[in-house]
Write a structure and sequence with these properties.
mainly alpha; globular
Length: about 200
């Protein structure tokens, strides 16, 4: 259970920072009916979990075979993740950030795919974050960890859809900034944990 919880916490810190996916879900919740907001959320969840699985099992599997590469990704990934967290803490949220909403299901699917898979930064961050943690996990904990990550994606995006439809008038930029600060701090802690794992492997 502890590895599921670790995956859940890391998954939340990965998906919660305000980016393209979150803005898409938020804008849907603020401007559309609940049914449409939940539909968009489910599609985003599908693509987000698919990306996490690719980052975790793809790059992570390679890291298990090559010790030198594993050490490199632990060090570089740890420093990069910590830097990402620091950047989130310092980031600014613009008042009127919006993503155009499409009406049809095919267009919604295409948009959800683009905000997830056509975002190079999300792929890079996911590879560093999940690939690095795959390298630091014992073999028996791998599946439990990624289950936690998937649960985090589902709960976060569905919760975001509910929050934005119920609290439309009070969902301010200050709240968005607070989310970034908290998640940035969590990412910095996890980044340092990866660096410590690197130090342990070279001793």
């Amino acid at each position: 259970m502890s590895f599921i919880l670790q995956g859940f916490i890391l998954g939340i810190s990965y998906v919660a920072p305000i980016g393209m996916q979150n803005l898409y879900v938020i804008n849907t919740g603020l401007r559309k009916q609940p049914k449409e907001a939940f539909t968009v959320s489910m599609i985003v969840i599908f693509f987000d979990i698919a990306l996490a699985l690719l980052c975790f099992y793809g790059i992570g599997g390679v890291l298990q075979k090559y010790q030198l590469l594993k050490q490199g990704i632990l060090l570089f990934g740890g420093l990069a993740v910590a830097a990402i967290g620091f950047g989130l803490i310092r980031s600014k949220i613009e008042e009127n950030q919006e993503i155009k909403l499409d009406e049809s299901i095919p267009k919604i699917i295409a948009s959800a795919f683009l905000v997830t898979w056509a975002n190079p930064q999300a792929i890079i961050d996911g590879t560093l974050l999940f690939g690095g943690f795959r390298a630091s996990l014992p073999t028996g904990a791998i599946n439990a960890f990624i289950i936690g990550v998937a649960l985090a994606s589902f709960i976060w995006f569905m919760g975001l859809a509910v929050a934005t439809t119920v609290f439309r008038k009070s969902f301010t930029t200050k709240i968005l900034k607070a989310i970034n600060v908290v998640c940035g701090g969590i990412l910095m802690v996890y980044g340092m944990k990866l660096v410590l794992s690197f130090i342990a492997t070279v001793r």
